[in-house]
Design a protein that fits this description.
By secondary structure, this protein is α+β, with helices and mostly antiparallel strands. The chain has 12 helices and 32 strands. The chain is globular and about 70 Å long. Residues about 1-20 and about 545-550 have low confidence and may be disordered.
């Protein structure tokens, strides 16, 4: 009996070994399009701390012809948010700050917004603070990110009432870590996170190029070749974390085994809760979700030519990381394919069934007349609807499918749309759309009313406009079909916008609205985009001397 048991065990071990070999070959096929003469990707996977995959494809340095290796370090982009959150939580454990602290206690130069913003609001993206990535394109040349955030006088919404991804919140969190600890954020991350876990190839750096040896450079396609594409220094919002696949798998293993303590691990993964009591699928630097019915905790990151995905599948003790140094590429897509090699077949997607029903509901109905540009009556935010099979797709938002001829539902929440709410789209009357939440909250939109702007209309907008919050002055000039805004002293920074309706111009989801006084004279403009609302530019004069309409 023992002999047969031994043979059976040997067969299991052999099958396991052969299975691991087969998985490596499958991983190689997934990355088959990455060539040895171009930038590429590094991939790692582990189960219960045992490495299953540790592979690299492509070049670390295209100009030098240096291949990627398992030692290569990548800028992990927003994947670093979990490290920022962990540093804050360690200080909370130390009793040096509290999640309920007013952030002005630690950064008193922030303005009084009329609402208390807590540290936890920053951690969970519920603060309402404007995202600096939406401010910087309109700010003065060379603006520093932290002072730019501090200069903002308004919020996108009252703290705790909505969810909106804000990189500004995490810039402030790093500043709070430094002020409370009396050390730089880099030093805190090194001594409280990286070194205790043995992550010796991971560091927080002010500039990626200062990361030392084995830093993977980032690129984008340029004709038949590759062009260096990296955001350095201030363009990175004050700094970056560089790391390897091995170190990031070590980090995931530490979270799995609570090596940073139960409090830190629990809080990192605990879903945020809005003032209404509704939870959202974002925790503190991590996103709890499911993939084909399998729980997953992850975060992606993108910075110029870098793309990263790091995730754990707790019920299967599986961790996966993919980092790439070129764009366009989706590390998330690669990681999903790799994870599927080690997970059971995914549950049937609800999308197919919902779409089949939607096709039946919309048979013979022309959705085109309902598509187009709408504006919120509450906030002025734009809503772009495009007709799609069985329903609509929303620009920068989810796909909706028909459940009735005039009602459309999301198949699943979208992380970056309406606080991830499971909204229903309705059309109660021609030219009117409504987004209705499960709790009954309703946002009403009206279709844009096109206005044929005459040359005289366009001339009325010409002038110089100043925002003290952004520290920038723009010139507004007529352009074919709309206007062009040019940053003064940096004419290469220009934005063309098309007419949407009277006094309103748009470019994708960017909106500029002009304001008039009682006499009808244009006195200001308000600027907004998906992560910034109502930045006021006051008119300070006519066109600058030497400006020509045809420039």
């Amino acid at each position: 009996m023992r002999r047969y048991a031994g043979l059976a065990l040997g067969a299991i071990l052999l099958a396991s070994h052969l299975g691991a070999q087969d998985r490596t070959a499958d991983v190689d096929r997934i990355f088959g399009a990455v060539t040895a003469s171009a930038p590429g990707c590094a991939v790692g996977a582990s189960r219960n701390g045992t490495v299953l995959v540790d592979r690299t494809y492509g070049l670390e340095d295209v100009e030098g012809g240096k291949p990627l290796t398992t030692r290569s370090r990548f800028d992990i982009g927003s994947t670093q948010k979990q490290f920022t959150a962990a540093a804050i939580l360690r200080l909370v454990e130390d009793g040096r700050l509290a999640l309920a602290d007013d952030i002005r206690k630690h950064v008193p130069e922030l303005p009084d917004y009329g609402h208390t913003i807590t540290i936890d609001h920053l951690l969970t993206h519920t603060s309402g603070i404007r995202d600096w990535t939406g401010l910087l394109p309109m700010a003065e040349e060379g603006a520093d990110v932290l002072p730019l955030i501090i200069r903002q006088q308004g919020l996108n919404f009252a703290p705790g009432t909505q969810w909106s991804y804000s990189n500004s919140g995490y810039v402030l969190l790093k500043e709070i870590v430094a002020r409370v600890s009396g050390m730089s954020f880099a030093e805190v991350a090194r001594t409280r996170l990286f070194e205790p876990l043995g992550m010796m190839s991971t560091a927080y750096v002010a500039d990626v190029l200062q990361g030392g040896a084995d830093v993977a450079l980032a690129y984008r396609k340029d004709g038949d070749g590759w062009q260096r594409f990296m955001r350095l220094g201030n363009e990175r919002g004050g700094g970056a974390i560089i790391s390897t696949t091995s170190d990031l798998l070590t980090w995931n293993d530490a979270l799995t085994n609570s090596r940073l303590g139960a409090f830190v691990t629990r809080k990192l993964q605990e879903e945020a809760r809005l003032a209404s009591g509704r939870t959202v699928r974002y925790a503190r630097g991590l996103i709890p979700d499911d993939a084909g019915g399998v729980p997953v905790v992850s975060h992606s990151g993108g910075a110029a030519g870098y793309s990263t995905w790091l995730g754990r599948f707790p019920t299967h003790a599986l961790s996966v990381v993919v980092m790439c140094n070129f764009e366009p590429v989706s590390a998330t897509s690669y990681a999903t394919q790799v994870a599927n090699l080690f997970l059971p077949p995914p549950a049937p997607s609800p999308v197919a069934a919902a779409l089949a029903t939607a096709r039946t509901v919309t048979a013979g109905i022309d959705l085109g007349p309902m598509a187009g540009l709408y504006f919120s009556e509450q906030t002025g935010d734009p809503l772009r609807l495009a007709a799609a099979e069985g329903g609509f797709s929303i620009a920068n938002g989810p796909r909706l499918v028909a459940v009735a001829p005039d009602r459309f539902k999301q198949v699943r929440p979208n992380l970056f749309f309406k606080s991830q709410d499971d909204v229903e789209l309705r059309f109660p009357s021609p030219g009117v759309a409504e987004l209705v939440s499960p709790d009954g909250a309703l946002e009403r939109y009206r279709r844009a009313n096109p206005h044929a702007h005459t040359p005289a209309d366009l001339q009325a907008f010409e002038g110089r406009y100043r925002s003290e919050e952004l520290g920038s002055t723009f010139e507004v000039l007529p352009a074919a079909g709309g206007i062009v805004m040019r940053l003064e002293n940096a004419p290469e920074r220009s934005i063309e916008l098309a007419a949407a309706e009277r006094d309103t111009y748009v470019r994708s989801l960017m909106v500029v609205r002009f304001t008039r006084d009682a006499s009808g004279r244009v006195t200001a403009l308000d600027y907004g985009n998906p992560v910034v609302r109502n930045i006021r530019f006051t008119r300070i004069g006519d066109r600058a001397v030497g400006t020509r309409q045809d420039q």
